[in-house]
Amino acid sequence: MNAAPSCTVRTTCPYCAVQCNFDLHVEQGLAVRVTPTKECPVAHGTVCKKGLAALSDLRHPDRLTTPLLRRDGQLVPVSWPEAMAYVREALAPLISSAPQRVGVFGSGSLTNEKTYLLGKFARVALQTPNIDYNGRYCMASASAALNRTLGIDRGLGFPLADMTRSDLILLVGANIAETLPPIMQYLKGTRERGGAIYAIDPRATTTARVAGRHLAPRPGTDGILALGLLHLMKSWGKIRPTAPAHGLADVLWHADNYPPARVAHECGVPEADLMTLARAYAEARTPLILTGRGPEQHTHGTDTVQAWLNLAFLTGHVGKQGGGFGTLTGQGNGQGGREHGQKNDQLPGARSLRDPRHREQMAAHWNVPESHLPQPGYSAQELLNACGESGEGGIDALIVLGSNPVVSAAGAGQVTERLKALKHLIVIDFLPSETAELATLVLPGSMWCEEEGTTTNLEGRVQRRRRAVSAPGTAREDWQILCDLAHAIGRPHGFTYSSFRDLQDEFFLATRGGKADYSGLSAERLDRASAQWPVPRADGPDTPLAYAPTYPTADGLATLHVPRVPAPDLAPRALHLTTGRLAGQYQSGTQTRRNPALKAENTVQMHPDTALAYGLRAGQSVTLRTAHGQATLPITLTPGIRPDTLFIPFHWPDTANLLTDPTALDPHSRMPGFKITPVTLLPAQDPALHPAPVVASGPASLHATP
Ligand code: SF4
Fold first, then answer.
1. Shortest CA distance to 375 belongs to which of 97, 105, 129, 668?
2. Which one, out of 78, 565, 679, 684, has a CA that is 20 to 30 A from the CA of 288?
3. Is the CB of 182 under 6 A from ligand 1?
4. Sheet bearing 677-678, strands edge to edge
5. Taking phi first (over 0 means left), then psi (-120 to 50 degrees means alpha), and beta for anything else, what does residue 433 get?
6. Hey, is 462 helix, strand or coil?
7. What per-residue string of b and e applies to 141-169 under the rule 16 or more CB within 10 Å gives b?
8. Beta carbons of 286 and 536 less than 8 angstroms apart
């Protein structure tokens, strides 16, 4: 049912994982204004500029309002029946003969219900093993480390408000001030109670400036830094494990290899600064380590996060109120999006597709035989790399929901070629992303306030997203489109819902007994208050603290793993590219690049000394070349970045991810190495002034496929 023509609807922001609440004011059926609400349990009335500008996309002239089918090389408007006829002709023969040649690519921005339905659609209707999503490019390494160690993956196992109880916060590669601004109020609370904050980042970000204490290790060396701290904690008698666990002795023995001199040298930080940080950690009562994408987006990202988690666990702080370890999830539903079945190896409720008991449970829920469910398939980058390949293992048709891998995937140039080679590329989206521009069929979907659902924020807090307005033109709600697809291919079983509420109740029930158990939730309960999972009983409490021993592992014990982190490239003139976010932009920029209130510049950030050494000046265009591609863009000079590091934001096409590697993946998380790529720098202009390119490249050790 649509909202009244004029009304105020309480809902959540479409962007990041804080999931601020605000009131959306609707007049005559149109959303006209958002106002923050102090009742928001996370942001308490603050929102950032993205949230305040979120209405701009709703009626943007580029909104997709009708299906578009490629004919004679052009995308032309067609009716929904024509679109579904194409789907039937394209997919029905494939799923009968070779369902594994159909791929599905989802998103960490989808609601929990869409995440659930997309996974069900892939496994029950298409019967393909090949579904994965863009969360592989986000927090997958932290997720893998938490699962391997504690058997549970809730980014923050505690409410954000607990941060203020910490007396020392280490922000490792997490630029909160620009990417999750409302959380700064909790850091302020920490400071007001006398706590200290360290930012560990190769760039002096806004967060680092606010923190006041900054350590700038080489990109890719965060794990070595954590090992160095563990070495010192052991030397100083500060080891008191949080709980009995497997692997303690091996991890402690391994840390012996990382004395301060080695760590300072490899990380490129003064040894005195390392010792100051170590003393602060050793003396803190409730130190809290928070990782962002900096240590995670590496081909050794899981091991790097493991090193920080080991440190927190072995010094007795995991699960302590205000202390321990957490990861700051980025995408709007990056937490719920990684729990309910769009990962290649996962079933709803954070169940495993490899576990026979979990397979039986979900098969029964879906009323299909267990043998109907495929085994795990490709991870995200592997799926994209297989697109258009004609041989065994190739993908002929890909369905993309709410994601833009042409911009966000590693090796975007190669990925674009692979997508062009597909026989069928079906994209469901609300704006014409660069991926939609390559599609054979585009289906117009719904935006955040045009649909019902729930999202789960970075502290595992489930909240309602409410519909305030209708999608424009003939655009349909995404969940309805997925059901349409199932019917079009002749697999309607389980894809007929009388209302969204039917689907939502089925989803909540599907999670019963899983680690991420939402089965005690209902829309009515969430109207009364948000809840942190697990919530296994309708008449029971939620779980603000998720990391208390015993852990949901086979024997209730945690397992620490020895982190394998590579030695860095120490060549004197080595230069490395790192990529990341800008304030005001979101993900691949499909929405925020179109928003005039969020204008930002796509430049390469460079230290002035580097520019001087290479004979470059501010504003000049340079070409960056790696083994995977090249990109040209202007220079911004910033003294806050390491001289051996270049930074490019990843929100624009044809720049950052043309340069990253699409083949080397983390062995546990299947994450590409977005945060470090050896790069060659050459001026793109003034060839007479700069006749010879200056080449800096790294050894194979940092660049090897694990
Ligand atoms: Fe809040 Fe994030 Fe939205 Fe900003 S983008 S308003 S921080 S949810």
1. 129
2. 565
3. yes
4. 677-678, 576-580, 645-649, 604-606, 629-637, 621-626, 680-683
5. beta
6. strand
7. bbbbbbbbbbbbbbbbbbbbbbbbbbbbb
8. no
DSSP 8-state symbol, 549: S
How far is the centre of ligand 1, averaged over its atoms, from the C-alpha of 527 (Å)?
A: 20
Amino acid at site 684: A
Q: Is the CB of 325 under 6 A from ligand 1?
A: no
CB of residue 50 inside a 6 A radius of ligand 1? yes
Place of tokens 């970045």: 641
CB atoms within 10 A of CB 259: 14
Query: Using 50, 70 and 90 to split pLDDT, how confident is the model at 461?
Result: very high
Contact 350, 516 (CB under 8 A): yes
Which region holds residue 584: left if phi is over 0, alpha if psi is between -120 and 50, else beta? left
Here the tokens at position 290 are 């928070």
Rounded to the nearest whole angstrom, what is the distance from the C-alpha of residue 13 to the centroid of ligand 1? 6
Q: Can you give the length of the chain in residues? A: 706
For 696, residues 6+ apart whose C-beta sits below 8 A from its C-beta are 571, 573, 574, 575, 678, 679, 680, 681
DSSP string spanning 314-363? Answer: HTT-TTSTT-EEEE---STTTTGGGTSS-STTEETTTEETT-HHHHHHHH
The three-class DSSP label of residue 169 is strand
Could you say which DSSP state residue 455 is in?
Answer: E
- Residue 183 in tokens: 């959380």
The finding on whether 18 has its CB within 6 A of some atom of ligand 1 is yes
Taking the CA atoms of residue 485, residue 490, residue 495 and residue 497 in that order, the dihedral angle to the nearest 10 degrees is: 100
Q: How far apart are CA 211 and CA 443, in angstroms?
A: 45
Coil, helix or strand for 182? helix
Query: Sign of torsion, CA 83 87 89 90?
Result: positive
Closest ligand 1 atom to Cα of 14: 3
Q: What is the pLDDT of residue 682?
A: 86
> In Å, what is the CA distance from 531 to each residue of 46, 143, 175, 268, 359?
20, 21, 27, 43, 27
Measured CA to CA, the distance from residue 449 to residue 466 in angstroms comes to: 6
Centroid of ligand 1 to alpha carbon of 14 (angstroms) = 8
- CA 164 – ligand 1 centroid, Å: 20
Q: How far is the CA of 300 from the centre of ligand 1 (A)?
A: 29
From CA 120, how far away is CA 373, in angstroms rounded?
Answer: 10
For the Cβ of 16 lying below 6 angstroms from any atom of ligand 1, the answer is yes
Confidence bin at 186 (pLDDT 50/70/90):
very high
**CB distance 409 to ligand 1 below 6 Å:** no
Is residue 703 pLDDT above 50, yes or no? no
| pLDDT score at 484 | 98
Is 305 close to ligand 1, i.e. is its CB under 6 Å away? no
Q: Which of 20, 40, 457, 465 to mutate to test the pocket of ligand 1 (most atoms within 8 A of CB)?
A: 20
Query: Ligand 1: does its nearest atom lie under 6 Å from the Cβ of 696?
Result: no
